[in-house]
Design goal:
By secondary structure, the protein is mostly beta strands. The chain contains 1 helix and 35 strands.
Length: about 425
């Protein structure tokens, strides 16, 4: 993900669109250098190589039926780019259907086995209507319209440190609170929720010091995203940003929070009233930061989390299950990967993905899991398009999540707020 600060590009808006067909060979291209964090030069690992797969973290997986699922990932070695892989045999084998070299994917969503979309952090949208065999990519900034922005506190003065040198110094100025929306979900075309974090800054106990506290953020809509309302959260909720969620209906939902990058322990929150109130759910007894939660109904669910060892290497992680709505959790298996996402299509068939390009599948309701990391990544076509360019003085969002509610219609979250997506 790019730097969290807002970026202002002194250029005119340019929008392009292109169609590509997956699984074709294309000439090698230069690695993009227009994004912060993009490495200079060509890729060090050939596309589809074992090294590339081992250096890729799969961030999310979505099953659309008992045989079809999609997952996306980004490479961990520093250069820009993503892969989107697909299975058509229930997760036993996978192949690459989309590659990006100049953008990094942050979300995917499929309405069925044929129709879906992916979004990059810069706002490029990739759509398919044939299950990933071909894609249309567009970096048109008018695909998105900002529907909700969380108000932040005004810029606050901070007293300078004491001492003769600072006797006549004016108050230092700090930025206003930083708010970032990190996840969005809809259970119907009307009912939706978005989640994020607010970093509240204030004068510290000592002059010249600043205290920052992270608070969870929840906003909801009951009219299809036309308007969004903030949810007042209890003061005793854990100090973590919230991201991925799972709703079984318009009433029961769960959301996870915490970041492995910030050495959090994480949290799980639950609502039983459609998101009007949230309470702390029982944390699984596993030393991992919750990254993804999925429930089939109000009782049966699964959760996975990210881990690092003392050297900072990923894994191992546990896949946990509950049969009582999250009141208690049972470790079903431990795997040699730092897991990022889990998804079930029914009571028997599920998939979990994570670091090292790892995929794990179950066909017995999560009682046992097998390593299904057999990928053919040599077939994905590189889609050549760059992030959108914005007008001078116009804030550029960094997108974080994406959901479709109907063909050509959806919502995305960013460090600016919640955006509506409408295809042209």
């Amino acid at each position: 993900m790019r730097n969290r600060s807002h970026t202002f590009l002194l250029v005119c808006a340019i929008a392009t669109s292109l169609t590509v067909t997956a699984c074709q060979t294309e000439p090698a291209r230069q690695t993009a250098g227009n994004k912060p964090g993009a490495a200079a030069g060509a890729r060090t690992n050939p596309p589809g190589s074992v090294e590339e797969r081992e250096n890729t973290t799969l961030h999310a997986v979505e099953m659309v039926d008992a045989r079809t699922a999609f997952a996306y990932g980004t490479n961990d070695v520093g250069y820009t780019g993503s892969v989107l892989i697909r299975t058509t045999d229930g997760g036993a084998t996978w192949k690459c259907v989309l590659r990006t070299e100049q953008t990094e994917l942050v979300g995917i969503d499929f309405l069925d086995a044929s129709n879906g979309a992916a979004i990059s952090d810069g706002g490029v949208v990739y759509t398919t209507s044939d299950g990933g065999e071909s894609w249309v990519a567009s970096n048109d900034i008018d695909l998105f319209s900002l529907k909700y922005t969380i108000e932040t506190k005004p810029v606050a003065p901070v007293k300078p440190p004491t001492g003769a040198a600072n006797r006549n110094a004016p108050p230092q100025i700090i930025a206003s609170d930083y708010v970032e929306m990190l996840g969005v979900t809809f259970k119907s075309e009307k009912d939706g929720w978005a989640f994020g974090s607010r970093e509240e800054s204030s004068q510290g106990a000592k002059p010249g010091s600043i205290t920052t506290k992270t608070r969870p953020v929840v906003v909801r809509t009951t009219n299809g995203g036309e308007t969004w309302q903030p949810v007042t959260l209890a003061a005793d909720l854990p100090s973590y940003g919230l991201s991925r969620s799972s709703f079984t209906d318009s009433t029961n939902g769960w959301v996870v929070g915490g970041s492995i990058d910030e050495d959090d322990t994480g949290a799980v929150l639950r609502t039983t009233d459609g998101g009007s109130t949230w309470k702390i759910a029982t944390m699984p007894e596993a030393k991992q930061v919750p990254q993804s939660v999925f429930f089939l109904d109000a009782n049966n669910g699964w959760i996975v989390g990210a881990t690092e060892d003392d050297a900072g290497d990923p894994g191992p992680s546990a896949i946990l299950a509950t049969k009582d709505g999250g009141a208690t959790w049972e470790v079903k298996t431990k795997v040699a990967a730092s897991l990022r996402s889990v998804h079930f299509i029914d009571a028997q068939n599920g998939v979990a993905v994570g670091s090292g390009g790892k995929v794990f599948r179950t066909t017995d309701g999560g009682a046992t899991w097998s390593d299904a990391s057999t990928h053919d990544w040599t077939t994905g076509t590189v889609v050549e398009t760059t992030d959108p360019l914005y007008k001078a003085g116009e804030p550029q969002p960094t997108y974080t999540a994406f959901v479709l509610v109907a063909p050509g219609r959806g919502f995305a979250t960013s460090d600016l707020g919640v955006h509506a997506y409408r295809a042209k």
